[in-house]
Amino acid sequence: MALFAILPLSMNAQKTLCPDGQHPHAIDLGLPSGTKWSCMNVGATSPEDWGGLYTWGECETKQSYTKETNRHYRNGDFVNIGNDISRSENDAAHVCWGGDWHMPTNKQVKELLTHTTYKTVIVNGVSGCEFRGKSGKTIFLPFSGVIGNQLIQRRQSAGYYWTSQQHPEYKGSAYIISLDGNKVSLDSNGRNWGHSIRPVKSR
User: 201 forms bridges with which residues in the sheet?
Assistant: First the structure.
């Protein structure tokens, strides 16, 4: 269920994104809210590194990504852990990185898509999407794939990133940034699926 405009992407090549190797950096894209986006994913060691794939509301990667292995799935259903888990004990970005880092909200994702330009690029051999803000600075979200129901789908044609918000009608689903080939959108997926997480810092 896409909630945001789907726009075409183009291919380009890049080599570097950050001023130095001391990751993570909080990148100021010049967004109206002052939100800064990290230069890399949770579990990554560089901007082009895929990092870990996490289920929504869990803070560790694992071997099996079924509903039954999710710690918030009980008696045949998902437990409601809050409509927005940003900065909570269930926020992997906040738990793993600490400080002011947290998972982005839907509002922050919509702001990113509205106030940046984006295109597909290749960074050190890894395909993904580059977002360029009015400040002239960029972030790179690699196409890191997905894991679900024990099926690993690591591939360089799509990437999916959790937001901090649960779906209002289906507590077994939460929102994602969907980077799928030639389109970018705000969508949703089942909470047991393994997706990437890109932290942000709010003003």
Answer: 36
